[in-house]
Amino acid sequence: MPIVNRIADLHAEITGWRREMHMHPELLYDVHRTAASVAEKLKAFGCDEVVPGIGRTGVVGVIKGRKAGNKVLGMRADMDALPLEEETGLPYKSTVPGKMHACGHDGHTAMLLGAAKYLAETRNFAGTAVVIFQPAEEGGAGGEAMVKDGLMTRFGINEVYGMHNYPGLPIGQFATRPGAVMASADHITIELEGKGGHAARPHLAVDTILVGCQIINQLQSVVARNVDPLDSAVVSVCMFQAGHTDNVIPQHAILRGTARALNDETRQLLRKRINTIVEGTAALYGAKAELTYANGYPVVVNHERETEFAADVAREIVGKDKVDTNTPPRMAAEDFSFMLNERPGAFIFVGNGDSAGLHHPAYDFNDEVIPLGTSYWVRLAETALAG
Ligand SMILES: [Zn+2]
Ligand SMILES: [Zn+2]
After folding, report:
1. Which of 87, 166, 217, 361 is deepest in the core (most CB within 10 A)?
2. What is the pTM (predicted TM-score) of this model?
């Protein structure tokens, strides 16, 4: 595999950074230790500019090429971990109870740091490489916070790229696709109010458990009967809370769930149908329903030309037949979508091999990915900014 030689030399050092980060996971925007360590490293590498505090705790590093050029390339990694207890038993396992790098963002950050070190050392390109380290990918929309804080305009970014490791995809393989590659994920909360009462006198009550069950059943018709069978969508109720004992019909119930789609048209259809079903079903039984439908991350839409470019760079690293440019879209979500809505670019998956799945307590980022992912970043910069 033609990984960049200098990157092979840096493998051990980057692995060290990754494992150190793994031992000290931080959540959402509270990534102070990680962000400080990233900023300190970027300064030590000799980046032309290191700017912390973009999108609260995001960090941006600016590296100018040796040759003149106007193009500015953005490369993004995420820094945050997840609220779960690690069960890997690794020597470098999390030292923080209830927090764990279970999505591999430690690996993403370490690889982009490795690329920054190489690019600041060699500067064999024209124009500017901008390395972006974002907080709060896991549900906090840190990518959106950085965009709102002027990320694209302040640094003059023309194109932006992102990468995520993927368990089950073999080491040494990349996968991506033009168009929708990951879903939108909106949040549904349904608060039901019926009429509580004695379980022996149901005719005098309005049973929120029955109403909630009917709503859940009706919601299954949205994907089955409203969405085009050739399109994809998910409507899942994942929480239903009601009642405290066996002889009281509960006055209140609460349901929560997720609605996901791969395009905005379907996303709007889900919203409309869910609203109609919740209101109509509650009314049918004489209950009151309050639906809160909160927009989450938008669809991750890869731009065509930039996706082909990213795939070409990956092919150069791992070989022609190891890059799948027709991988099926995932119904999971990613807030890199906010960046792709601002600038052309592409999101690519890099194989993490036969590891536990993302967000699993036994998951670990595979350090064998480091030379591949880091080489991808440096060749992406050197090629996009060839001048
Ligand atoms: Zn995740
Ligand atoms: Zn992730």
Report:
1. 166
2. 0.95
